[in-house]
Amino acid sequence: MEGYTNSDAKIQRVLIFTLHSQQALHVIRALSSVGIKCYVVGHDRFAMHLFSKHCHVGFFTKRKFLEEGDDQFFQKVNSFVRKKKIDVLIGTDGDTTRMLIKCRNQLKGARVYPGPDLNLFDKLHDKWNFAELLNQFNLPQPEYQLISKVEDFDLKKLGFPVLLKPLIGAGSIGIQKIDNFSAFKSAIQELKNKNRLPILAQEYIDGQDIDYNVLSEDGNIIAWSIQQRINSQKGLIRYLVNEDVAAICRELIQRSKYTGVGHIDLRIDDKDGRVKFIEFNPRFWGSLDYSTAMGLNFPYLGIQIFTKQSIIPSLPVVGDCPYLPISLAALVRKITGRGISIKQGSLKKWAQYLWADPLPELIEDIRRRFRKT
Questions:
Q1: CATH number of the structural domain spanning residue 162
Q2: Which of 49, 124, 247, 279 is found 20 to 30 A from 211 (Cα to Cα)?
Q3: Measured in Å, how far apart are the chain's first and last C-alpha atoms?
């Protein structure tokens, strides 16, 4: 991987668009930690990221404008960009990222964060289109089918159990594991009643989840890491090197000429040990804060593509990153001297950075407790 040289003007201010407050908070903290001022456009006036001392309110708008845009909305964005001298526009989730890519020509005065063209974004973001792309590239994946009605299911190709997945979605929402044909028929009928067809049927793979995080430009990989959640230890993510995962992900990124950040879900098949692609998220991901804690600041590295500041690619981070909780219980433990003891340099520094900005998580914890009562 080659670095970038010849520093240009420094990026000082960004405008973040979000429909996912937690991911917005991850991006805000990552960029604020290197001195970048973060303004945010959202639809929820009580979103948790608004309680961060690093968050500066841009303006509020309707959800549909964050998803699809609108001429009046773009005028407001462009006016804000001029007024605040914004350098870069950033989406934090699938909807806002797609909106910025789709409408980049209507946005004036600031650059849109690096990303693929709309055609490639949709191929990767849609689970059926992604499966078809993998098939085109002859890359490993589970068996799959597009299901619009019960009769589409081919028992010879897909047995049970099988996973039913919405074509567009995040956070495992709407995914069902189906164990037999009777349950399959019931599930398809229910989805039909809710107008949620077609849906992807994907072979269920017994095995281990493993994920690949990446930042690339035109297929050239700038930064990457491989991670696994360690279920035996709550919240722990292990960063490791797996040559099989790295090789097939590198091939996908290079052949698709992907630009931007991305998070790829894969699974190691217990039957034969092969690594298989599951999903591609062409956006920031839910565990982004772990990468930042380990010293790999993906949001900032992406911005450096514009500035041509020196990006010195290095070996991916390796090691364990514990869950760094901020909650009422964690606050009590910290005050009483029973908090998590962290000695590793970058982790210790990041933990201190989080505890200097505790309000978003503490307020969200209080909300959760009230919702339970």
A1: 3.30.1490.20
A2: 49
A3: 53
- Banded pLDDT at 316 (limits 50, 70, 90): confident
In angstroms, rounded to a whole number, what is the distance separating the alpha carbons of residues 229 and 239? 9
Nearest CA among 229, 230, 225, 265 for reference residue 242? 225
In this structure, is residue 1 part of a structural domain? no
* Residue 89: strand pairing partners: 15, 112
DSSP code string of 208-237:
EEEEEEEEEETTEEEEEEEEEE-TTSTT-E
Q: Say which DSSP state 106 is in.
A: G
Residue 8 in any domain: the answer is: no
Closest alpha carbon to 277 in 183, 335, 207:
207
Phi, psi of 90 (to 5 degrees): -130, 130
Q: Is the distance from CB of 264 to CB of 280 less than 8 angstroms?
A: yes
Q: Do 239 and 298 reside in the same domain of the chain?
A: yes
Classified as helix, coil or strand, 180 is: coil
Domain of 280, in residue numbers: 117-139+206-323
Per DSSP (E only), the strands in the chain are 13-17, 37-42, 55-60, 88-91, 111-112, 144-147, 162-165, 176-178, 199-203, 207-217, 220-229, 237-240, 260-269, 275-281, 319-321
Sign of CA dihedral 81, 85, 91, 97: positive
pLDDT for 7-37, tens place per residue?
A: 346 899 999 999 999 999 999 999 999 999 9
**Where does the pLDDT of residue 3 fall: very low under 50, low under 70, confident under 90, or very high at 90 and above?**
very low
- Comparing 6-20, 46-60, 268-282, the range with the smallest average pLDDT is 6-20
pLDDT value for 60? 98
**pLDDT band for position 372 (cuts 50, 70, 90):** confident
Q: Which residues pair with 215 in a beta bridge?
A: 223, 261
241 and 317 in a common domain: yes
Whether pTM exceeds 0.70? yes
Tell me which of 7-21, 40-54, 341-355 is least confident. Answer: 341-355
Find how far residue 196's CA is from the centre of its chain: 24
